[in-house]
Amino acid sequence: MTFVVTESCIKCKLMDCVEVCPVDCFHEGPNFLVIDPEECIDCTLCEPECPVEAIYSEEEVPAGQEQFLALNAELAKEWPVITQRGEPPADADAWRDVKDKLALLER
User: Fold this and answer.
1) Extents of the domains making up the chain
2) For the domain bounded by 3-83, which CATH number is listed?
3) Along the chain (107 residues), what's the average pLDDT of each consecutive run of 10 residues?
4) How far apart are CA 71 and CA 85, in angstroms?
5) Who's near 47: CB < 8 A, 6+ residues apart?
């Protein structure tokens, strides 16, 4: 089993989850993070760290967010690994509660 970053992370990218990961499975894109399903060891440490509740086990991904399973796997192959918390976007707080952000995902 793996964990998955879902839509709530888009344009928030707060990165609280990154430093608790013992296997460095997070990858960073321009305005989103993903988890590499090949590296994730299902330790559960990242899930409670996410302040926007964007991380779920693959078995608990909310309805309508299932496409993020494939999206995490795809983008983890393209984006660089991130091991330290960086600065979130300046307007991250404005995007916290916004829904339907998939079209805003930057690759």
Assistant:
1) 3-83
2) 3.30.70.20
3) 96 96 97 98 97 97 98 98 95 96 97
4) 22
5) 3, 17, 55, 56, 57
